[in-house]
Write a structure and sequence with these properties.
Elements: H1 3-25, H2 35-65, H3 67-70, H4 76-105, H5 110-138
Length: 140
């Protein structure tokens, strides 16, 4: 496995774990009240800390173990993998934007729209990183 592939595995796992916790423990009963937005903000703090912490620790540990590989520039294969992953993430992102537009028109609460927006970005990012991992494993 290359350095970048290992970093992608850490990113995928930390995103899935942190936002899995977020969406499973969010107090959905208060989503229609103004305090629902406060709950979103409060819960995003530990999510951000977990993601940044795990990515930083993993990147540092992997860079210490394989410093030469960590400093390599992206080759054509990795650029292609990055491009394909970004392309795959475009579709759930567009669907999420449309979902957010409908949520505005149907007067969904601010916390509901905020959670939908967060879910849109998280799903698109998981698709992007997941597609990149797929292409790394497939051997492109």
């Amino acid at each position: 496995m290359t350095f970048r592939e290992k970093i992608h595995w850490v990113a995928f796992a930390s995103l899935a774990a942190a936002f899995g916790w977020y969406f499973l423990t969010y107090p959905w009963s208060i989503i229609d009240r103004p305090v629902g937005v406060v709950a979103v903000a409060g819960m995003l703090v530990p999510v951000t800390i977990v993601i940044i912490g795990s990515m930083s620790i993993a990147a540092a540990a992997l860079a210490i173990r394989t410093p030469r590989e960590a400093n390599l520039k992206e080759d054509e294969r990795e650029q292609f993998i990055h491009l394909k992953g970004t392309h795959a993430a475009y579709y759930p992102l567009v669907l999420g934007v449309w979902g957010n537009l409908f949520a505005i028109f149907y007067h969904i609460s601010a916390a509901g729209r905020l959670n939908l927006l967060i879910a849109t970005v998280v799903i698109a990012e998981l698709v992007r990183v997941g597609a990149q991992l797929y292409y790394y494993r497939r051997g492109y």
